Amino acid sequence: MSLLKIMQFPNEKLKEKCSDCRPEKNLHELQKLSEKMIEVIKFYNVRSLAAPQVGISLNVMTIFDENKKEFITMINPKIVKFDGIFEHEEKCVSFPRTKTVVQRYREIEVKYLDENGSEQHGTFEGKVAGFIQHGIDHLQGILFIDRLSKLKKDIIIKKQKKLKGI
Hints:
By secondary structure, this protein is of the alpha+beta class.
C-alpha cells in the first residue's frame, strides 16, 4: 500500500479552487482516488479528506460518517440548504498538531455524485455536517484558518511555520 502524500500548510495547492469532475469521462480513476483517500483517512484516523489535501485539484472529498459508520465519497458536492450555527472543533491533517473552534452550520443538505457517478442528496447534522463543510471549503481553496479572526489565524500560521522550521 502506498499512501497518497498529504499536502501541508503552507503548500500553495491547498489554496487552489478545484475543478468539477465529469464522472462519465473518468469514473474508474475517480473510484481509485476514492479508495486511496479512504486509505489515508484510516491511516491518519481523520474524519474527512479533500482531494487538494493530497495534491489533486478535483472536486472530490471523502468523509467517514460516524453516525452511519460508513465512508461517503462526494463528487462535486454542493450545499443546497443549511440551518443553525454551532461551534465545531476542527483539526486538519494539513495542519499538524493544531485544533481550533470554527463556526459551522448545524444542519446541511448536500447534493453530490457518489463514487459510482450516481446523483445523491443527503442531510447531515452536527459533527458530520462540520466535517463536510471543512472538506467543501478545501475544494474551494478555503482553509479553516481563513474562518478565524486575524489574531487566531496569525498564531496558527506562526505555529505551523515553527513546526516546519520556516
